[in-house]
Amino acid sequence: MRIGLFGGTFDPIHWGHLRSAEEVGGTFGLDRIFFIPAAIPPHKRGQTAAPARDRLQMVRLAVAGNPRFGVSTVEISRQGVSYSIDTIREFAAKKRRGDALFFIIGLDAFREIGSWKNFAELFPLCNFIVTSRPGSKERDPLRGTGVAVKKLFCYDFKQKNYRHRSGTRIYFIELTDIAISASEVRELVRKRKSIRYLVPSSVEKYIKTRGLYRGPRGER
Ligand code: ATP
Known about the structure:
Layout: E1 2-8, H1 15-27, E2 32-37, H2 52-63, E3 69-71, H3 74-78, H4 84-94, E4 100-106, H5 107-110, H6 119-122, E5 127-131, H7 147-150, E6 153-156, E7 161-164, E8 169-173, H8 182-190, H9 201-210
Parallel strand pairs: 1-2, 1-4, 2-3, 4-5, 5-8
Antiparallel strand pairs: 6-7, 7-8
Helix pairs in contact: 2-9
């Protein structure tokens, strides 16, 4: 099995996330993609607007009906700050012979990987699929990551990707630009404006029923 791990705050999940997973899944022949909502995202200084259980429920609603997509509660169940190393170790421990893990991440987030907890230990455990971000022309996933990360990889000119000495790879994929962000969705809700066609209708309904993102800073 080729297993995709798609972590994020998903505050809330939107069509940009879903389309991204769809394109990555098709291009890399992934059998399953797990959306993994963070309990407390380290890079956002612990700030989320909606509580973890609401973000999780919205992800569940959004992926329902797609057999390739699944939801993992590892980070929310673990509680505390969600470090990718802990999550990837959990998946790596459960994987069967012949399984391969692919961590899906936006180029902007990947650029910060050198500051992640135990980052060098991530690379032997899984491959990385780095996705383009709307409006950005950057195509080299390692640019801007720093020497500590770059020195761990060599470029494979034949396959046009980066290879780690353990055999795992960093791939890059150019996605259809869908310039939606969760912050924009929250801002629209706060201003009592429509979020139709930015998020699945089930998520739109959930936000309304639960009264999410209506507070002064986009909180509940
Ligand atoms: P915020 O606006 O609150 O920062 P966000 O919309 O970027 O949130 P996250 O949950 O932080 O959403 O993102 C999870 C992952 O999805 C990240 O790897 C991010 O790069 C990627 N991502 C987010 N929005 C898009 C989009 N419109 N197209 C492609 N990838 C996206």
